[in-house]
Design a protein that fits this description.
One of its GO terms (molecular function) is cullin family protein binding. The radius of gyration is 21 Å and the shape is elongated. Helix 3 crosses helix 6. A hairpin with a 5-residue loop joins strand 3 and strand 4. The N terminus is likely disordered. It starts with 14 loop residues before the first strand and ends in a 7-residue tail after the last helix. Helix content is 54%, strand content 9%. The strands form 2 sheets. Strands 4-3-5 form a 3-stranded mixed β-sheet. The protein has 2 domains: 113 residues, Potassium Channel Kv1.1, Chain A, CATH 3.30.710.10; 32 residues, no CATH class. The longest helix is centred in the middle third of the chain and has 22 residues. It is mainly alpha-helical. The protein has 9 helices and 5 strands; from the N terminus they run ββββααβααααααα.
Length: 196
């Protein structure tokens, strides 16, 4: 379910509030002025937004000056998917902390297909160009969405795994400011790291 710019109350997504379903929607405003609607449940996946909601700062929309519309739509899509997954995982358990291990194992086995779908969604979300991936990392960090930050950073780590120093420099556009002698000294001091 992709996020779309807000329009006149056409959205009827449900959020969980106090254990009951409600239609509470939160307006998020991107750095380029575009408004998006998100369920309160999805919006609260961001610690930053959660605190703003709790402080009563969400009534007129929440401006996100560091998140452009293109990235905000991706962030909302991630939060919608993961909030729905968290709700599905816990819907048969009144208090997830009270569930015993057998219930957890049954829930995990029953939703293996859903978990595969979520992993597939996550992989496709971060299968983007480098600039977009870095913007996702910046947004996830600014909004304090740990799962999304971990996902995007893991994608970067996977992209540079088994690459040479020169390839990593090229990927990150890092200029080598070492002289030949300095570089050789570093390679000798840290020979274990340069086994090629």
């Amino acid at each position: 379910m992709a996020a779309t710019p807000a329009d006149a109350s056409s959205s009827s997504s449900e959020a969980v509030v106090g254990g009951e379903k409600s239609n509470k929607m939160i307006t998020l405003i991107s750095s380029d002025g575009e408004s998006f609607e998100a369920t309160e449940e999805a919006a609260k996946m961001s610690v930053t937004i959660k605190h703003m909601i709790e402080d009563g700062c969400a009534d007129d929309g929440i401006p996100l000056p560091n998140v452009p519309a293109k990235i905000l739509s991706m962030v909302i899509e991630y939060c919608n998917k993961h909030a729905a997954d968290a709700d599905d995982t816990n819907k048969h358990v009144a208090d997830p902390a009270d569930a015993d291990e057998d219930d957890d194992n049954n829930n995990n086995n029953a939703s293996a297909g859903e978990k595969d779908d979520l992993k597939s969604f996550d992989a496709s979300l971060v299968a983007v160009d480098q600039a977009t991936l870095f913007d996702i990392i910046l947004a996830a960090n600014f909004l304090s969405i740990k799962g999304l930050l971990d996902l995007a950073c893991q994608k970067v780590a996977d992209d540079i795994k088994d690459k040479s120093v020169e390839e990593v420099r090229e990927i990150f556009k890092i200029e080598n400011d070492f002289t030949k002698e300095e570089e050789e000294a570093v390679r000798k001091e840290n020979a274990w790291a340069f086994n090629e």
